[in-house]
TrEMBL record, chain A:
<dbReference type="InterPro" id="IPR051393">
    <property type="entry name" value="ABC_transporter_permease"/>
</dbReference>
<protein>
    <submittedName>
        <fullName>Sugar ABC transporter permease</fullName>
    </submittedName>
</protein>
<feature type="transmembrane region" description="Helical">
    <location>
        <begin position="21"/>
        <end position="43"/>
    </location>
</feature>
<feature type="transmembrane region" description="Helical">
    <location>
        <begin position="110"/>
        <end position="130"/>
    </location>
</feature>
<dbReference type="GO" id="GO:0055085">
    <property type="term" value="P:transmembrane transport"/>
</dbReference>
<feature type="transmembrane region" description="Helical">
    <location>
        <begin position="205"/>
        <end position="230"/>
    </location>
</feature>
<keyword id="KW-0813">Transport</keyword>
From TrEMBL, chain B:
<feature type="transmembrane region" description="Helical">
    <location>
        <begin position="216"/>
        <end position="241"/>
    </location>
</feature>
<dbReference type="InterPro" id="IPR000515">
    <property type="entry name" value="MetI-like"/>
</dbReference>
<feature type="transmembrane region" description="Helical">
    <location>
        <begin position="140"/>
        <end position="163"/>
    </location>
</feature>
<keyword id="KW-0813">Transport</keyword>
<dbReference type="InterPro" id="IPR035906">
    <property type="entry name" value="MetI-like_sf"/>
</dbReference>
<feature type="transmembrane region" description="Helical">
    <location>
        <begin position="110"/>
        <end position="128"/>
    </location>
</feature>
<comment type="similarity">
    <text>Belongs to the binding-protein-dependent transport system permease family.</text>
</comment>
Automatic annotation (TrEMBL), chain C:
<dbReference type="InterPro" id="IPR003439">
    <property type="entry name" value="ABC_transporter-like_ATP-bd"/>
</dbReference>
<comment type="similarity">
    <text>Belongs to the ABC transporter superfamily.</text>
</comment>
<dbReference type="Pfam" id="PF17912">
    <property type="entry name" value="OB_MalK"/>
</dbReference>
<keyword id="KW-0813">Transport</keyword>
<feature type="domain" description="ABC transporter">
    <location>
        <begin position="9"/>
        <end position="239"/>
    </location>
</feature>
<dbReference type="GO" id="GO:0055052">
    <property type="term" value="C:ATP-binding cassette (ABC) transporter complex, substrate-binding subunit-containing"/>
</dbReference>
<dbReference type="InterPro" id="IPR003593">
    <property type="entry name" value="AAA+_ATPase"/>
</dbReference>
Length: 297, 311, 365
């Protein structure tokens, strides 16, 4: 006769705990541990191999006095602001156009979204070809007789980041359009009817009623675009390899190159810590607004 | 009630109304200004979106002399599949000259196990989170979701060290593990939300019937959630196939996935650039996700919508 | 039959098709100035569609719509002189109540003091003054619906359209707001067209009810007429709860008198007012449960005995389910006279209050 004992807390629901081991390991070891490790080693002078030889903020001083990093940050800001604005505006306009009960909606949606299925490498290479000054768009227009026409963003360090932006928008706006379209479809039909009965013109209905109602969708889109901006890497590698010169460098590429080519791990860690910081700056206010704010209402 | 109107059968003459005037449907012109603007805009934008695909295909079917002389938008005068053959089997990356085929098979060997492993882990995990909550589970889940926003660059080097310690650095299995790790946040969220939306009575009834953790998962949940598995597969196949960063960090040249191989073919070759071969190679690399996209249609949209709504 | 000369809303030969599917078929209604018309019918009968056509939210396939004598068939909704209240309220969520009320007026470029005046009036009528600075999310369902009515009110229009305005509310609130809408109508004396599937709302609010089915108006009449003299079996069955009793049987003429015969039940029809000259044949006999007397002697043109099957006490009265012959039959009795299950009871009624329908077409005989 065994006495019925209170089962050990640790073994209650054991299967679920076993099934969650990968999640726990990923969360703790990779996400928390890995980030902490990188931040810690960013204060060392690690070169080829990571070493715990602390040098304070030296890596950061060097980072912020390296022209290549400064160019990267400037590019990221320009690229980031423009891609945010254009993605949201173009995505919303396309979604609004598709929401007019048009024919062939599925066809149009399929066309606008297919670039999103492609790799950034593929996108980068095809736009590299389209923007090739000799054979691409510039060459074609000149061939038509307009000899002075100039459109060679990938070979002009002043505007190279716009060349990358064009490719990024081509690939990414379809996703934003899909999100916006889902948001528009979620709006009560009666709102549209009420606006029509009230005699409110379509444009005003969008601006004053629909867009404010779609605030959550816009925030979601904003977070997605912002997260993508910080990570931008493959596209630049494929389209320009950071060139001409260092004109189209971005932080993610800076990190990779210093870690795996320049064998200056400390610089790479410092740069990636700055990237982490920038994400925190974006994510924390958003999380506070979305989740923290509700408790106070 | 005698002063109230009585309805008339159709066709009776009406008194007090003009006989002419608007009647029936409001006239609609197919070529109204609104329609011209609407469809015009959509068609122009659609052409813009299709242009790169068109140029890729057209360029890949031309010979080099025609490319040098002609216009990238003009259709090929003489169709040749030579560039495709070369891209597939003999294009050079600077290290070897056996074309994209090596990268293709590497990508297959990476994608298939990664998709299976990541979905297996995430679906069981999402099921545990939805139906078998235990203390602390939500904390780890929140860390996992927030972690999805951390730039990969912050974590790649620690993972290099871990993989090196367990002897998997540079191998395909190492990359499979990396993909499973980084696919976990979004997939777990996807499955957790899906299982949470299933009626709770079902789960309780199964427990009363004596089914346990795995019994309910395999016999009740799995058969009922095929659509979400399809969504997850679409999400993972395209995501992993298109990956570049992890491929270039965690594999060696002989195990490079297709995207890395493609970039090396196009960007690191010295001498004369063969644009037709490059474009053929680019299409070949984009083909797998494109086929997945066009075949899956609405499910793809659902997948990215699910993937998009993080948090 | 005359056509109303000063009709507030007049619908003439209105049809609507979606492709091959006909949703509304050649409808004709004239609504008098200040009249309260209820469009009643089961879901999918076309009542909301008809309302949307009147509002101009749907284009018609054929026919004309006049509001205040003006042909508005091709007019935009805002130019039709209508205000509309929706089932889901359709309040603009990010605007305060006041902004919700004034938005249409501001867009129309109406002067500020005029807007303020109209809002003050609407708020007073609807007693929503304390709510003006709140957002819709901070209002209860009843308050939201009041604001929605207010939005129609400030437009200063002739015709109010209601699209199932009370369906999203719970039963108690629905009853309260029903009374308020009735009061509002008597105060404003506007023309109102009101869509619902709730027969109580229809009976209590309407000057006239239009019962619709399959895109066709079955009967357009005062509530009592529709209740007491339904034109066909559908209308008879749709109105009334518990539903009218229907007995299947035959019309027969014996010794110069018409009878309704269902097996061993023989109902004399001497007191029944036929619509047209009857002919022998299959027919349906309908009588409402409250028109049947229960255990009350033999002073009725028709009496019978029946077996009690089920007794449903409902508080104020009791519903008794019987077998009359072999057909189901319900009787409504006062609570004190509730019988027991399996009792045999006597019933009686006057066929004057009954309705006879053609078995094949369902039309009133």
């Amino acid at each position: 006769m065994s006495k019925s004992e209170r089962p050990n807390q640790l073994f209650r629901n054991l299967n679920a705990k076993v099934a969650s081991i990968p999640m726990v390991l990923t969360a703790l070891v990779i996400f928390v541990g890995g980030s902490a490790w990188t931040v810690l080693y960013s204060f060392t002078n690690s070169k080829l191999l990571p070493r715990l030889n602390f040098v304070g903020l030296d890596q950061y001083y060097r980072l912020w006095s390296t022209p290549r990093w400064l160019v990267s940050i400037e590019n990221l800001l320009v690229y980031g602001v423009l891609s945010l604005v254009f993605s949201l505006v173009i995505g919303f306009i396309l979604a609004a156009l598709l929401d007019q009960k048009i024919r062939f909606e599925d066809t149009f949606r399929t066309i606008f979204l297919y670039p999103f299925a492609l790799s950034f490498i593929v996108t980068g290479l095809v736009w590299q070809w389209l923007l090739n000054p000799e054979f691409g768009i510039q060459g074609v227009v000149r061939g038509l007789g307009w000899e002075s026409f100039s459109f060679d963003p990938l070979y002009n360090s002043e505007i190279v980041i716009y060349g990358i932006l064009i490719a990024a928008l081509w690939q990414g706006t379809g996703l934003i359009m899909c999100l916006m379209l889902a948001g528009l479809r979620g709006i009560d039909e009666d709102i549209w009817k009420a606006a029509r009965v009230d005699g409110i013109p379509t444009l005003k209905t969008y601006l004053f009623i629909i867009i404010p109602m779609m605030r959550p969708v816009f925030i979601t889109a904003l977070v997605i675009i912002a997260a993508g901006i910080v990570k931008v890497y493959d596209l630049v590698v494929a389209q320009t390899s950071g060139g001409p010169g260092i004109a189209s460098e971005v932080p993610a590429k800076y990190v990779y190159d210093y870690m795996f080519f320049a064998q200056n791990l400390g610089q790479g860690f410092a740069a990636s810590t700055m990237m982490l910081l920038s994400v925190v700056v974006v994510i924390v206010p958003w999380a506070y607004l979305e989740f923290g704010g509700k408790k106070h209402v | 009630m005698s002063d109230l109107a009585v309805s008339l059968p159709a066709g009776t003459d009406s008194i007090g109304f003009e006989a002419s005037g608007p009647r029936g449907p409001k006239p609609r012109h197919v070529f109204s200004r609104r329609n011209i603007f609407l469809y015009g805009t959509l068609i122009v934008v659609a052409l813009y979106y299709l242009l790169p695909l068109y140029v890729m295909v057209v360029t890949s079917l031309k010979g080099m002399p025609e490319i040098r002389l002609g216009n990238i938008f003009s259709p090929p005068l003489e169709i040749t599949f030579e560039p495709w053959v070369k891209a597939w089997s003999s294009a050079c990356t600077g290290l070897n000259c056996d074309g994209l085929s090596r990268g293709f098979w590497n990508s297959v060997r990476i994608t298939v196990p990664s998709v299976i492993l990541s979905i297996a882990i995430a679906s069981v995990n999402g099921y545990a989170l939805a139906n078998w909550r235990f203390k602390g589970a939500d904390t780890f889940f929140v860390i996992l979701i927030v972690g999805a926003f951390i730039p990969y660059q912050v974590m790649i080097y620690p993972i290099v060290i871990i993989l090196r310690e367990i002897g998997l650095y540079g191998s395909l299995s190492g990359l499979v593990i990396v993909h499973s790790i980084f696919g976990m946040p979004i997939l777990t969220l996807l499955f957790r939300n899906y299982f949470s939306s299933m009626p709770d009575e079902l789960f309780r009834a199964a427990r009363v019937d004596g089914a346990g953790f795995w019994g309910i998962y395999f016999r009740i949940m799995l058969p009922m959630s095929l659509p979400i598995f399809v969504v997850a597969i679409i999400l993972q196949v395209t995501g992993i196939w298109n990956d570049f960063l992890f491929g270039v960090v965690y594999t060696r040249p002989d195990t490079y996935p297709m995207t890395v191989q493609l970039n090396n073919i196009v960007n690191s070759v010295q001498g004369v650039k063969e644009y037709n071969v490059n474009m053929a190679a680019t299409i070949l690399t984009g083909l797998v996700p494109l086929v997945v996209y066009f075949v899956s249609g609405k499910l793809f949209v659902r997948g990215i919508a699910a993937g998009a709504v993080k948090g | 039959m005359t056509r109303l000369e000063n009709a507030s809303v007049s619908i003439q030969d209105l049809s609507l098709n979606f492709g091959a599917i006909s949703v509304l078929e050649t409808l004709n209604i004239d609504v008098a100035e200040g009249e309260f018309i209820v469009l009643l019918g089961p879901s999918g009968c076309g009542k909301s569609t008809l309302l949307n056509c009147i509002a101009g939210l749907l284009d018609v396939s054929d026919g004309r719509i006049f509001i205040k004598g003006k042909n508005v068939t091709w007019e935009e909704p805002k130019n039709r002189g209508i205000g509309m209240v929706f089932q889901s309220y359709a309040l603009y969520p990010q605007m305060t109540v006041e902004k919700n009320l004034s938005f249409g007026l501001r867009v129309a470029g109406i002067a500020k003091d005029e807007i303020a005046k109209r809002i003050a009036r609407a708020a007073e009528i609807l007693q929503i003054e304390p709510l003006l600075q709140r957002k819709p999310s901070a209002l209860s369902g009843g308050q939201r619906q009041r604001v929605a009515i207010g939005r129609a009110l400030v437009r200063d229009v002739d015709v109010f359209l209601f699209d199932e305005p009370l369906s999203n509310l719970d039963a108690k609130l629905r009853a309260e707001l029903r009374v308020e809408i009735k009061l509002l109508h008597s105060k404003l004396q506007n023309t109102m067209i009101y869509v619902t599937h709730d027969q109580i709302e229809a009976m209590t609010l309407a000057d006239r009810i239009a019962v619709m089915k399959g895109g066709v108006i079955q009967q357009l009449d005062a509530p009592q007429t529709i209740y007491n003299r339904p034109v066909n079996r559908f209308v008879a069955g749709f109105l009334g709860s518990p539903a009218m009793n229907f007995l299947d049987g035959r019309l027969e003429k014996n010794d110069g008198n018409w009878h309704f015969v269902a097996e061993d039940v023989r109902i004399p029809l001497a007191t029944y007012a036929f619509e047209k000259e009857p002919v022998p044949g299959a027919a349906v006999f309908g009588i409402r449960p409250e028109h049947v007397a229960f255990n009350s002697g033999s002073g009725w043109p028709f009496t019978a005995t029946a077996n009690v099957v089920v007794v449903e006490p409902m508080g104020s009265d009791t519903l008794v389910w019987l077998k009359l012959g072999n057909q189901n039959f319900t009787v409504r009795v006062t609570s004190e006279r509730t019988p027991n299950n399996a009792d045999t009871v006597s019933i009686g009624f006057d066929p004057m209050r009954a309705s006879l329908f053609d078995a094949a077409t369902g039309a009133r005989l």
